[in-house]
What does this fold into?
Amino acid sequence: MSETKALRSVPRAAASPGASPLLELRDVRAAHEGITVLHGVSLSVAAGQVVALLGPNGAGKTTTLRVAAGAHPLESGRLLLGGRDVTGANPRDLARAGVCLIPEGRGIFPNLSVRDNLLMMMFTGRTRKQVEEVAFARFPDLARFASRAAGTLSGGEQQMLALARGLATDPAVLLLDELSMGLAPLVVGRLYEQVAEIARGGVAVLIVEQFATAVLGLADHASVLVRGRIAWQGRPDGELRTELSALYLGSST
Amino acid sequence: MTSSTETRADRFVREIAELRIPDPAAGRPRLWLRLGVALMVLGIVLGVTAYLVSHRTTSPLVQGDATTIGLGGVTVSVCGAALFVRYSLTAFLRFWMARQSYDLTLLGDRLLDSGAARDLAGTDQPNR
It folds into this structure.
């Protein structure tokens, strides 16, 4: 469990207390093919804050992230960005403004080279030089693999590439879905250090994880989603760690 | 121009504030269109019902009711047809107006071009 301890020591982001949230979901209800999967979810993330959204499989975490990115329609409730109601806005416009969703499975193009994957992010209006500078400064290893096909990279390197692509868009709100999936704890620790560094730069980070222990060392605030409802939220301290299994299993302690 | 001290969060808030968000009411014409069709169908159903009710009775009172139902059916159908025509024609008329506007602009450009060409060629007859 030494890796877990190492993860817990990741320096937290310096979120300014009481700062107005960059991202806010208010009483959001959303459905998949007519079945409601989110039942009044409310959460907020301020600039520089890392919020972890935890929950068992099928709880609605990914849907929540997609709602936050404007990529999933709402049945009711509101999506606010920078204090403005943007419910129904085009997700492309939100992405251009600075909302970046890194989906589960990384969303990279395996047949393209690392460099070509990065250059995909020029849609935001950034130049090739700017994109490469941002990505390679944060992840120097990627510069060495720039000409390699992205599909030949290891899982951790692919996740680095996904993060680098996200950073290349100069995000203000970063939405991460299952960043640690399929990765060794040491690799996850390194990625979380990068996420903390990104948040310290003033980016609002909402991170979804199914396996909670690791991400609790990184987050300023945690929400536990169970069957489409927020079952617990607060600071990720001892209370959450003791209650987590009960929340996941759906029984009270 | 933006201030150099503007943070990323400030810039994000500004860009989001400037964002043009489509009106959710923009999708309503389709609902009105469907309502129009539904009302037309309802009108026909009411008409048939009125016919059947009046046909199966010799009571003037019941026939009077059937007449009322039939007139109600006509009213509902007319309202439905009006809604349907209004919202189904909107898209077509928008396209037609855009086409008209384009044709007029093209015609204007052509007339201006031919006028300019004639001036340059000096083909105007001098006044005697």
User: Anything to note?
Assistant: The radius of gyration of chain A is 18 Å.
